[in-house]
Amino acid sequence: MTLGGYANQIAWINLTEGNVELKPIPEDLALKYIGGRGLGVKFVFDNDPGVDPLSPENILCFMNGPLTGSEANMSGRMAVVTKSPLTGTVTDSHHGGWSAARLRWAGYDGLVFKGKAEKPVYAYIEDGVLELRDAAEVWGKGVHDTVNHFKEKYGEKDLSVISIGPAGENLVKFACWINEDDRASGRGGTGCVGGSKNLKAVVIKAKKKIVRAADRDKWKTVHSTALAEIMDERVVTAPRKGGLSVYGTNVLMNMTNVIGGLPAKNSQFTAFEGAEKVSGEYVNDNVLVGNPTCHACPVACKKEVEITEGPYAGLRMESLEYEPAWSVGANCGNDDIGVVAKMIHTCNDMGMDAIEIGHPLSVYMEASEKGYTNGDGKLDWGDGAKMVAIAGKIARREGFGDVMAEGAEATAKHFGHPELAMTCKGQGIPAYDPRGIKGMGLGYATSNRGACHLRGYTPAAEVVGNVLGPSTVADPLAWEGKGEMNVIFQNVHAVTDCLDVCKFATFAESLDSFAAQYEAMTGIPSDAGHLLKVGERVFNLERHYNNLNGFREGSDTLPERFTKEPSTMGGSVGHVCELDDMLVEYYEKRGWVNGVVPEEKLKELEII
């Protein structure tokens, strides 16, 4: 294959046998699925939809796209793709930083692991050569000590480390992969799959290299145009109204709170009185110490902080992203910024999804409040010291932490009240309440990897759009039209995950701009319609995979709290989420039958 952008090399690693086979990317798959999420999902599908997620037969893919490692704005993303042990669905989870670019500079578009090593190992890549090496020295260590170990061993310069922590080793169902920049492939339990394979880390030593575009002259032009779009001040620097560069992702805390769209205390409420104390504005004014950035990113939304007061004074970490800050903040009735920072830092070191962990905790808190715990102790709302202690117990599966390590649904069922779990397909919701942001409710229900905001980020129109004023603005309390909106957003995000670029690029760049960059880089003729078709193909392949795993009619649901318990908070008072009405429109636009992809749709999209 002579396409630009690609290294045209995938490493297929058999951990059981200890061997590595290098293969080119089949050109037909590159054309149909591009890379990143799309190619990873295709590999997972072709492997075996019915595989046990924790069996050696499941595969674990680390995938780049054709823009990765290039000058393309916000292209420092890597997709980790597998079958999820938390949900039983196909899942992909992306992380930023510099590890994706270094994998590309090392000469790989992806790594695919299968089997199970007899003893703990890590994959080491240098000068284009991949070897499996003994991980005995780092097995049992936290992510931060693991990263430091490899920095001392191989030198910090040009080095990336993607690691699991004790949570992955102990098969916590929401364990994840964390890299040296504390960027997480957080959702779906991808780190649990790594632990099941005795795979501790992927270590990459690679100097920066030029990623060649097929049409270099055109690339310079389209890249400059895209950069101008990204630097629109509405997205990047708009003071106080927004601005990811100024406040990071946590700029959303106050935005969602004021409209009654911030789930609080396990979603019993749609606003939190302590939201300001854990917001991006508070961080900027009180604890911000740095603005590090990912590869090829002009935005710098990461916010390094240092806690100055309380029991965690002196803690320096990055970063207080919106969803994790909500999860262990408003979701748990906690407004202590020190506790929020400590919890996220602990999750990063233990290798756990900092969004997911708030769910078994808040289930425990509500069960305690209502007297459901049946001798399993008690956890009060906002009890920061106990939250931190329990996080460690979850990672090590100690005591009641062993139950919580299975996730929110298992925790709620243990208490005899499954209705307390705010999950879809087994995965906890992120930081948007479906009663106050209704498009997101439909997005949670129809997401192929369980409740997720990144499958189709409708708050770009329902929340951010109403504050910053881009071209697409929607009433967050209206349900009409949200079916079609979700289809468009889901298809767009699927294809940008294939490229693989940051979601925030879509706040500013048009699909025409992405198509122009893709064409200039690869040499493949493209336009917005072409990319949308790829996105639709990927989303339908995922849905077909899930259909084959029993997620069929009636699987696209929300917890009844969102559909039957009206909001009592300002901005959304009296509202529920009209999921059933939105699903009718959504399925019609998708061409699905009650959530199932019909054969004619699979043929239309050339999936079968």
CATH level-3 fold name of the largest domain: Aldehyde Ferredoxin Oxidoreductase,  A, domain 1
Largest sheet: 6 strands, mixed
Average the pLDDT over all residues and give the rounded result: 94
What is the total domain count? 3
Q: What is the CA-CA span between the terminal residues?
A: 23 Å
Q: What does the oligomeric state look like here?
A: single chain
Topology:
Blueprint: E1 10-14, E2 19-23, H1 27-33, H2 36-47, E3 60-63, E4 78-83, E5 90-95, H3 99-105, E6 110-114, E7 121-126, E8 129-134, H4 143-154, E9 159-163, H5 166-169, E10 177-179, E11 184-185, H6 190-196, E12 199-205, H7 216-230, H8 233-236, H9 244-247, H10 252-258, H11 280-286, E13 288-290, E14 304-306, E15 316-318, H12 322-327, H13 337-350, H14 358-369, H15 384-396, H16 401-404, H17 408-414, E16 423-424, E17 427-428, H18 438-446, H19 459-468, H20 482-499, H21 511-522, H22 528-548, H23 560-564, H24 579-590, H25 599-604
Parallel strand pairs: 1-6, 7-12
Antiparallel strand pairs: 1-2, 3-4, 3-6, 4-5, 7-8, 9-10, 9-12, 10-11, 13-14, 14-15, 16-17
Helix pairs in contact: 1-2, 2-20, 2-22, 7-21, 13-15, 14-17, 18-20, 20-22, 20-24, 21-22
List its salient traits:
six-stranded mixed β-sheet, 12% strand, 39% helix, alpha+beta, 608 residues, 25 helices, Aldehyde Ferredoxin Oxidoreductase Protein, subunit A, domain 2, Aldehyde Ferredoxin Oxidoreductase,  A, domain 1, Aldehyde Ferredoxin Oxidoreductase Protein, subunit A, domain 3, globular
